[in-house]
Amino acid sequence: MTWQLTIDCGDPGRLVAFWAEALRYRPAPPPAGHATWREWYLATGIPADELGEGDCLDRIEDPTGAGPRIWFQPVPELKSIKNRLHIDLTVGGGRSVPVAQRRERVDAEVARLTGLGARVLGSMDAPENDHYSVQLADPEGNEFCVV
Predict the structure, then answer these.
(1) Range of the domain at 13
(2) Which pTM value belongs to this model?
(3) How far is residue 91's CA from residue 102's CA, in Å, rounded to a whole number?
(4) Assigned domain for 11 exists
(5) Residues of the chain scoring pLDDT < 70
(6) What's the total number of domains in the chain?
């Protein structure tokens, strides 16, 4: 079995650009025999007026093949409530790493991600639980955590 993560969004190209950088992924190439995703969608019977403009780049993949593919599915409605599922980016090194060092790693990654367009929503700094994490939102408001 294989799987992909599908994220509803208003602007797939914007999220492809953000998440490809955030996850160190790359835009997924269109299926064999098609120069663009738009060409592939048209070949599968999706009407041109539903595709908008551009090449319809809406997927990313892990260049190592280890992580799941992600499809940014365009939908007409805006995000209106908290995510029921979110991504945790684990960069701190786990509990075997001193919390001060994990905090440095997390804060460095948060700085990189905010430079890409994320915004900080809050943090969890719980020394009594040996935990530090920061909650962010991607350019469309989807929440994720850096731990």
Answers:
(1) 4-74
(2) 0.91
(3) 8
(4) yes
(5) none
(6) 2
